[in-house]
Amino acid sequence: MCETKASDAYRPLNDPPLTVLLQRCGDPHLPSLENRVAYQWEPEADLLGYRNGRRKDSTILQWLAEGVEQAGRPASVLDVGCAYGNLLLMLNAKLGIPDDVQMHGVELHAESLRYARAFAALVPGYSNCHYYAADLTNGLPFPDSTFDCVNMGDVIEHLPDPSAALREIRRVLKPGGILVLTTPLRDSLFKKAASFLNRLSGGRLFRAYYSGKATELDSGGKPINEC
Fold this sequence. Notes:
Elements: H1 17-22, H2 33-37, H3 47-71, E1 75-80, H4 86-94, E2 101-107, H5 113-122, E3 129-133, E4 147-153, H6 162-172, E5 173-182, H7 189-200, H8 204-209
Parallel strand pairs: 1-2, 1-4, 2-3, 4-5
Helix pairs in contact: 3-4
């Protein structure tokens, strides 16, 4: 049984990897076995956001998979701002769990990486997924021209110097490599609808969406660090 709540997801714990992997902690974002087996068909309260997220994830995964195939083998992929590491785990599965593609994820909040590391260590076929705590604004811990593909999903809008961040991405990306970069549109129909529903819910919609993302929120559930 999980001994922590979703709000405690970043509290330092000394649990062994198997215990971490089994914990759900009430957080649907965790790459736990309970989420991936018992709750994989659990309905989302935010149906519009769920549908939008599924479409975005499938598009990103397809572009990264095409980039890997274009690069040939061996290949390497970097996910900047990987959170719990889900995208790389999904990409590894989409590619057929290859042993000649190395997956690397970096995340500012080190505590979330224990879930991804536990999954990679204990689930067969995912030992090629590696996760590191790193701050993009201070430089990435990789040599020049390391990666064939880099994903940077919903990160750039939070950075104080986007140009410097892109220069750092270019440094670690191989010549001819692929960068997949996504950022929310402020005035999109989806954003307007989500903001309206969030106001109706007293901020509960945004707080549920950002649960487990180590994002500081204001009283209305909006990220304080959003540029």
